[in-house]
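Hey forum,

I'm writing up a methods section and want to include a predicted complex as supplementary material. The small molecule is calcium ion. I've pasted the protein sequence and the SMILES. Can someone with a working setup run it? I'll credit the forum in the acknowledgements.
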Amino acid sequence: MYKLYHVFNEVSEGKGGIDNRQFQEALKRLEEYGLQRFSSLPLGHRLFALFDKNNDGVVDLKEFMLGTRSFACERLDWIGC
Ligand SMILES: [Ca+2]
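Reply by user p_vandermeer:
Happy to help. Structure tokens for the complex are below, copy them as they are.
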């Protein structure tokens, strides 16, 4: 979980929310941690909409954590599902 938090924090520059562009950047960084083919999927931009549960155009930390867990849970043990 720490890595997720770390990636989110880096990409959001400590602001607590990321837009679509920052979200793509976050996916790229997660790839470096083993979340392969996440950002290269055509799903990339649709993922943002899926993560953004309240549709405010921003993925906040909670949405990021929940979204990442539901998508990556089975692939990554370090997420700690
Ligand atoms: Ca949101």
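Some notes you might quote in the supplement: The first strand starts at residue 17 and ends at 18. Residues 52, 54, 56, 58-60, 63 surround calcium ion (CB under 6 Å).
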